[in-house]
User: Which sequence fits this backbone?
């Protein structure tokens, strides 16, 4: 039997390399997927520009943060970027509303098939992509400040006397807390408020909702506003936790789509579930369990190999493999999505 | 049959020599082809700035070919799209009529450009950053040079250093391209031959936000140290950050793409003890160039900026040596200015070099990276062993 | 305007643009652009088969072009006997194991009724074969990749002429498309897009990371050309004589013999490059015309009418007894085969295979812009789109730099905004593509040459 400290070591190891990173990455994916899924539920198209919208929101936050920092404003241990968030949300809302007014609305009025809107969103993606690079350039930008860690790995080891340490980043905790707050607020809005109920009705059955006097333009407007806010929050949190770079947001698009579909597209609960499933499986499948088993298994029977299910080379493929499996086995997603 | 063109060429050289005795001050066009968009778009502006610095230095001196100036024509290699790069190179050579090309950057597009555009048209191409060992053996008819040494050499040097420091087991992560993979291969081979063990060799993709899975796998291998073969502002930095954040590794072994003071500046955490290799020697040249670049508003120590400056300088000096901005003449004189004999030339001394050459003297361009070209037009490479002390890379030793 | 006239005008315009490049910039550049225009046109035709005929949104274009490129390597490169000796046996066994597994599962599915038992046995077979595979595959890969990794480290190819790879590339792509189609067709259109986008990333990841196959990210360069090499031409007497003959009048104007020699040398170099490009142009044009001929025949046949009927109203077609999923699979495979051919041609032209270069922006979305701008559902339109968009993509680079210089000309040298704008010029390219796509979709949704709908 392994000793208690060994079990603790193994758990801490797992927590540090799989659980904590997956939790914050999952939260960021969940927020992104929520935006995609809402848009899909109400405007009924897959928005390819969502990743770049996130980049745009994060970019505005970066610029405002720099400005605040130059004024000497700070939030103490918390990153200044949180203060910049409202401005960034506002700017992003403006951008998506402009695109809606001049681009998407036309096709909505024409009752174009959803795939047409998806292709249109590719054009918007190209443009947003270029705008972001045009304003801030393609480089990596740093804008996080405040205290970086709540718990440092080294301090943890010293305090507990274990071999393994766990590091808890302030940005991860902020990510998780903000995600919980946003999700609770969104669910409250969708389930309790009048507008939210109207939105759900509209998503369920457009014609019926129209008959009962729902104003479609208002629904669309609010959907875009929520999407912009979600995209900006997800983008900023991701940037704070990792780093801001326009290129990474385009690549986020694919796991976000995967999360939305795996969870059941059009279903907010599904988007959140999907985000965590994708994040956890990416990390759990590519983690090498050699050290983990070394703590747990009796002396002499430790594995020689890395005990890695899939090489990290294929890390990002994990989300698609899950996606494909879900599409094959349960095309509506885990929480039964609406359309297919 | 093979000799026909050579005969033609020598006749042409003769003609240009006769013609060039009275050449007036001209504007000479040269091309810079780098990936201004695409995966390394964040490195290239500084590389281009460094090259343009050298061209400007030569133009401003007023001594280049009796007061000629250099006009730079930039083109986008995209780093990955061979087709777009070929078209851009074709534009530089056949439409802009450049005399020579500084570039390209990534080994893939560089091979395509050399094979499909530069070599067939007889235009010199000097790459500052294509380090793939495969480029050594392309059929370039003597038109392709590079100021960045082949990765085969760096792998060997790194392995030697590790053994000397008594490090026997290591985890390796490399950026998933020909540079990273080539270096990881050559390092692994050299390290194993010296009795070391690579516990895990895992790729990382650039441009991702999250590297915790890679770091998890690397740390699980049980190796006490981590070697990172990547780029300073790309995945390489992400890996180091994630490793420090999770407490998986505390010191790192890095290669040239990762070395620069911005590493310590941009990574949160203590990097003391991290060491690595960078082409070059303890000349004042490198320091001088950093200073010049910072003054010009570019990142002084960005990856491959020194190589870019040196590549540009070689082009200019070769023109002066041959007394002509003719393509053939540049090709014929690169080796002469890059190697002994002659007076050693360092960054910021181009005016002096141009003057020596104008008077019929010889120069041996050392530059910021100790340029020394071998018979296939590559620099054999001396390497500095650097270590981070107090947040800055300090040179420990020359290999 | 009538369709024929419109097409004639559009293509005349395109030809005029290329000629303008030839006269204004250089003929070498014009031909270089033309060659890629031809390849782009083939790719565009492939996407048009899927989107224009059948309304399938395939966002995995890059995977199929990459598979074509892979075929070019596997066909043309000489085999590496050392690698075969080191790991050939293991790899052969691995292939046998996979084949046996597939066969076993197939037999099982035929002979046993569905249910828990069948699932259990299938799972056992899969796990057992994975275990066996690891036993043979991993050491095989290791042995192969250890064979001179800087230069080979892979099995090599068959050492056959590369033109053969154009056909094989199509077959590769078609085979993979069949599997992907089986998995993802039948989904709603934008689901299909996301699924294919994801699968294409997986295909690229495999090509990038399985070094034993085609050296992965280390690239394979120096592929044998189907046309002569410039250097050899420059040293062939017949070619020098030819150039001399063609440009006799130009040369006669020069009196100084040395200057004449120099001019001749420059002409020989330029002409050799042009000759090589022209040879490629001829080859690509032949392929494009053949595919175009097939496409036009297909579109106007009863099969084409059925496809359009399915596209325009799936339910009605289904109700009429048409096998919608089956037809979709057919058209998906055909389109992908065309993409594979184009991919193999592209790799041939580049002379190298660089898996890292397959990026969705360039190889998937740009091709889509071609089809939509050109005219979805219209073959000539797709060809035009391929020409026009590739041309814009290449010429947008100098154009945006020029534009930026124009805008910033009044600003002082060293002005921060000026510097920033000049640095950002390359990104205008993407902006322009987005704008063109949106404008066409809005104001000419059928593209420049819209589909011809015959009302009977």
Assistant:
């Amino acid at each position: 039997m392994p000793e208690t400290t060994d079990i603790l070591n193994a758990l801490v190891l797992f927590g540090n390399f799989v659980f904590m990173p997956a939790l914050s990455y999952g939260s960021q994916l969940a927020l992104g997927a929520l935006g995609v899924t809402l848009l899909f539920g109400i405007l009924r198209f897959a928005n390819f520009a969502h990743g770049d919208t996130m980049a745009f929101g994060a970019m505005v936050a970066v610029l405002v943060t720099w400005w605040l920092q130059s004024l000497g404003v700070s939030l103490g241990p918390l990153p200044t970027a949180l203060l910049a968030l409202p401005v960034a949300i506002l700017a992003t809302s403006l951008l998506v509303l402009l695109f809606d007014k001049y681009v998407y609305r036309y096709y909505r009025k024409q009752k174009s098939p959803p795939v047409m809107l998806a292709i249109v969103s590719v054009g918007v993606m190209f443009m947003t992509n270029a705008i972001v690079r045009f304003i801030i350039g393609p480089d990596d930008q740093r804008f996080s400040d405040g205290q970086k860690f709540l718990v440092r790995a080294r301090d943890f080891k010293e305090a507990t006397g274990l071999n393994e340490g766990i590091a808890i980043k302030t940005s991860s905790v902020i990510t998780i807390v903000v995600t919980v707050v946003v999700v609770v607020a969104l669910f409250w809005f969708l389930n309790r408020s009048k507008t939210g109920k109207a939105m759900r009705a509209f998503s369920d059955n457009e014609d019926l909702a129209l008959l009962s006097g729902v104003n479609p333009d208002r629904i669309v407007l609010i959907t875009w506003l929520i999407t912009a806010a979600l995209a900006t929050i997800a983008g900023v949190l991701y940037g704070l936790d990792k780093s801001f770079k326009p290129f990474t947001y385009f690549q986020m698009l694919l796991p976000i789509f995967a999360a939305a579909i795996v969870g059941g597209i059009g279903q907010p609960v599904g988007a959140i579930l999907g985000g965590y499933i994708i994040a956890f499986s990416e990390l759990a499948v590519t983690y090498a369990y050699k050290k983990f088993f070394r703590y747990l298994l009796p002396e002499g029977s430790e594995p020689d190999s890395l005990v890695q299910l899939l090489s990290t080379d294929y890390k990002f493929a994990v989300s698609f493999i899950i996606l494909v499996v879900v599409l094959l086995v349960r095309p509506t997603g885990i929480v039964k999505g609406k359309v297919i | 049959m093979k000799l026909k063109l050579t005969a033609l060429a020598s006749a042409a050289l003769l003609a240009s020599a006769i013609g060039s005795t009275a050449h007036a001050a001209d504007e000479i066009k040269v091309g810079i082809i780098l990936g201004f968009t695409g995966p390394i778009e964040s490195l290239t502006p500084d590389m281009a700035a460094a090259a343009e610095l050298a061209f400007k230095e030569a133009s401003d001196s007023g001594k280049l070919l009796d007061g000629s100036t250099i006009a730079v024509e930039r083109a986008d290699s995209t780093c990955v799209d061979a087709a777009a790069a070929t078209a851009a190179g074709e534009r530089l050579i056949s439409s802009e009529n450049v005399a020579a090309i500084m570039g390209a950057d990534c080994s893939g597009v560089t091979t395509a450009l050399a094979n499909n555009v530069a070599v067939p048209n007889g235009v010199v191409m000097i790459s500052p950053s294509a380090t793939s060992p495969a480029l050594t053996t392309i059929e370039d008819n003597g038109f392709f040079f590079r100021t960045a040494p082949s990765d085969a050499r760096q792998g060997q040097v790194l392995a030697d250093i590790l053994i000397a420091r008594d490090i026997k087991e290591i985890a390796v992560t490399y950026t998933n391209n020909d540079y990273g993979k080539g270096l990881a291969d050559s390092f692994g081979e050299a390290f194993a031959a010296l009795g070391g063990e690579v516990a895990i060799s895992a790729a990382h993709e650039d441009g991702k936000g999250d590297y915790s899975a890679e770091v998890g796998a690397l740390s699980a291998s049980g190796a006490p140290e981590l070697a990172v073969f990547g780029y300073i502002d790309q995945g390489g930095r992400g890996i180091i950050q994630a490793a420090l954040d999770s407490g998986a590794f505390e010191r790192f072994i890095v290669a040239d793409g990762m070395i620069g003071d911005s590493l310590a500046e941009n990574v949160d955490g203590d990097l003391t003890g991290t060491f690595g290799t960078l082409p070059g020697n303890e000349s004042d040249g490198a320091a001088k160039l950093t200073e010049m670049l910072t003054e010009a508003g570019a990142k002084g120590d960005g990856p491959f900026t020194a190589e870019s400056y040196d590549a540009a300088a070689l082009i200019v000096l070769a023109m002066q040596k041959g007394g002509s901005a003719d393509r053939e003449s540049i090709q014929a004189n690169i080796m002469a200015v890059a190697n002994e004999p002659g007076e050693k030339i360092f960054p910021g001394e181009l005016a002096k070099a141009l003057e020596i050459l104008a008077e019929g003297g010889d120069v041996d361009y050392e530059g910021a990276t100790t340029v020394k070209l071998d018979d296939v037009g590559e620099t054999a490479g001396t390497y500095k062993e650097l270590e981070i002390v107090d947040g800055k890379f300090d040179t420990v030793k020359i290999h | 305007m009538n369709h024929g006239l419109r097409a004639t005008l559009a293509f005349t315009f395109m030809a005029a643009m290329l000629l303008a490049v030839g006269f204004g910039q250089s003929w070498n550049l014009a031909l270089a652009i033309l060659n890629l225009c031809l390849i782009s046109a083939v790719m565009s035709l492939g996407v048009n088969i899927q989107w224009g005929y059948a309304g399938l949104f395939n966002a995995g274009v890059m995977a199929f072009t990459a598979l074509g490129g892979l075929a070019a390597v596997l066909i043309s490169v000489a085999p590496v006997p050392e690698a075969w000796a080191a790991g050939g046996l293991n790899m052969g066994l691995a292939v046998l194991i996979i084949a046996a597994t597939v066969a076993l599962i197939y037999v099982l599915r035929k002979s046993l009724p569905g249910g828990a038992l069948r699932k259990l046995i299938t799972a056992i077979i899969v796990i057992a074969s994975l275990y066996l595979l690891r036993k043979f595959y991993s050491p095989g890969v290791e042995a192969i990749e250890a064979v001179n990794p800087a230069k080979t480290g892979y099995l090599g190819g068959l050492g056959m002429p590369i033109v053969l790879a154009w056909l094989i590339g199509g077959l590769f792509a078609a085979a993979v498309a069949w599997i992907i189609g089986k998995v993802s067709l039948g989904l709603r259109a934008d689901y299909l897009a996301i699924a294919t986008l994801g699968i294409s990333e997986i295909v690229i990841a495999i090509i990038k990371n399985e070094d034993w196959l085609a050296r992965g990210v280390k690239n394979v360069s120096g592929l044998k050309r189907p046309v002569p090499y410039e250097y050899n031409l420059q040293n062939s007497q017949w070619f020098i004589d030819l150039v001399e003959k063609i440009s006799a009048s130009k040369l006669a104007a020069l009196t100084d013999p040395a200057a004449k020699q120099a001019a001749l040398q420059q002409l020989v170099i330029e002409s050799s490059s042009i000759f090589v490009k022209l040879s490629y142009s001829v080859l690509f044009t032949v392929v494009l015309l053949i595919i175009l001929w097939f496409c036009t025949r297909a579109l106007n046949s009863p099969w084409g009418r059925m496809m359009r009927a399915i596209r325009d109203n799936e339910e009605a077609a289904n109700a009429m007894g048409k096998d919608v999923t089956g037809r979709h699979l057919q058209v998906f495979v055909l389109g992908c085969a065309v993409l594979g051919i184009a991919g193999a041609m592209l790799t041939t032209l580049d002379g190298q295979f660089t898996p890292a270069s397959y990026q969705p922006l360039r190889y998937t979305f740009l091709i889509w812009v071609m089809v939509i701008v050109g005219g979805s559902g219209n073959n000539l339109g797709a060809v035009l789109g391929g020409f026009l968009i590739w041309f814009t993509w290449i010429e947008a680079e100098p154009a945006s730099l020029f534009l930026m210089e124009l805008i910033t000309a009044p600003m002082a040298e060293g002005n921060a905004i000026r510097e920033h704008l000049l640095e950002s010029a390359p990104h205008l390219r993407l902006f322009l593509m987005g704008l063109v796509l949106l404008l066409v979709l809005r104001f000419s949704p059928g593209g420049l040459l819209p589909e011809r709908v015959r009302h009977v």
Remarks:
- Residues 26-148+285-365 of chain B form a domain with the Rossmann fold fold (CATH 3.40.50.2300).
